[in-house]
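Obj.: predict assembly geometry.
Materials: sequence records (below).
Method: joint structure prediction, all chains together.
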Amino acid sequence: MTNTCKILLIEDDQDQINMYRFKFEKEGFVLISARNGGEGITAARSEKPDIILLDLILVNESGVEVLKKLKSDDVTRDIPVIMLTNLAKKEMKLQSERLGAVDFIVKTQITPSDLVRRVNQELG
Amino acid sequence: MGTNQGAQTGKELGCAGYINKNCWLANNVNGPPTKRCRYCELAFKKCLFARFLLISSILVVALLLTSFLIERKISEPLVISLFVLIIVYGYYFDRSTESIIVANFSERKAKKAFIELTETLKQKVSDQTKDIKEKNKHLQKMLRTQSEFLDISSHQLRTPVSVIKGVISMILDGDMDDLPKAKQREFLQGVRDKSTKLEMIINDILCASEFDANKFSIKTDSLVIHMEDVVDEAVKNSRLEAKQREIDLRWQKPKRPLPMIRGEAKYLEQAVYNLISNALKYTPSTAMVKEARATRQQKGVVRVTVKKERENIIVCVSDNGIGIPKEEIGKLFHKFARAENATAMYTDGSGLGLFIVKAIVEGHYGKVWAESELKKGTNIYISLPIARPDKQVNALPKSNQSVPVTH
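Observations (raw structure tokens):
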């Protein structure tokens, strides 16, 4: 199942970037990574990814703030965003859903294959 | 008596020596009916005794006058019967007014006591309400802190777990079958590192919550130890990490033994280890340093020193790493505090290391503080009081062992 869908992973932990990069590239995706919100928004605007995986705890800012910025920008508004986090707080989940995230996933509850499946499902 | 009276005016109403300051009789006639007047606060105009005197005088005059007008003389039996009458009248008057005054006094006293009691009760209730409100506030704050603590620690705990679980499930799914052995090893090493990290985070969380619950403090019978031995051990345990991070870890054990301190070697070793480990994390192995004319490459160095300063032993862990912004030095020793520039380099610690250091050092009656300059480096100091010589009786002059002290 090869496809050339582009994924933007906004995540501050390098080990996790490496892991997800390996899995998604193996599945034929193109994975772009950003280590903080600013970089992530720039990448989202220039690369126009098909989907964004956004961590909730980022360097110096909350993923929710980044999500707000993504959703208020005409260029990035329509890109589906999946929140990917280890902070399983109900209010965070509600807040992200209200802001337009398509899903809120706790990293420890899924494996990389599950995530690939979820992304594929989202991209149709 | 005049002076005595002045001194006695301070006495309370109802007490033996009380003299009514308003009493004209007490002040002018040197013999007021003091027994019952000690209960009286009435002014002269309202004085019952004065009324008695006035009424009886009028009566005497009236009777004498009447008898004189009728009989043209004052007979002896009349005078005697008049005096008897006045004495009897006086006696009953005195008794009845005394009981009135005393009853009035008791009532006033009871009222006063009641008002005082009400005031005291009101005060007590308001104090207790305030106390309860404060406690409630404190509890709520504690609950919030606890819940924040749980949120953040669960996040810190899940981070390594997500990598461990992810990599292992990829191996089981066969994703890595085609990978070269070296690459596979790299992933496995990552898993091992993350599980070590996980264990450390769990230890830190347990340790911090224990310190939170019971403030750590050394016991009076704690051993006296050589701090340089403690540091030596902590440095030994950090060597591997320094090597992996390619940082020069420099430590020279003093040739002459320093004065001993009283403490728990295991805890102090953890404190020093945490400091070294932090320094290693926030120091790049090499960094480009701009100097006047050119940029040069600077190797990451972490230096550990121990020395005696006045009555204290000072341990310093210094690095030439990223430094800490001035405004963030203050919160450094709080739970989960991490300076803004630190998150960029390192995010998978427990966030509790320096909090634990502070709890341990303060439990040893010592101090910990930091000095730092951005992009230049950080010095963190621990200062511990030297054990008093009289408690060092059995301490060996130079030894790696800890020795118990007998008093």
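Conclusions so far: The mean pLDDT of chain B is 81.
To do: check interface contacts against the pulldown list.
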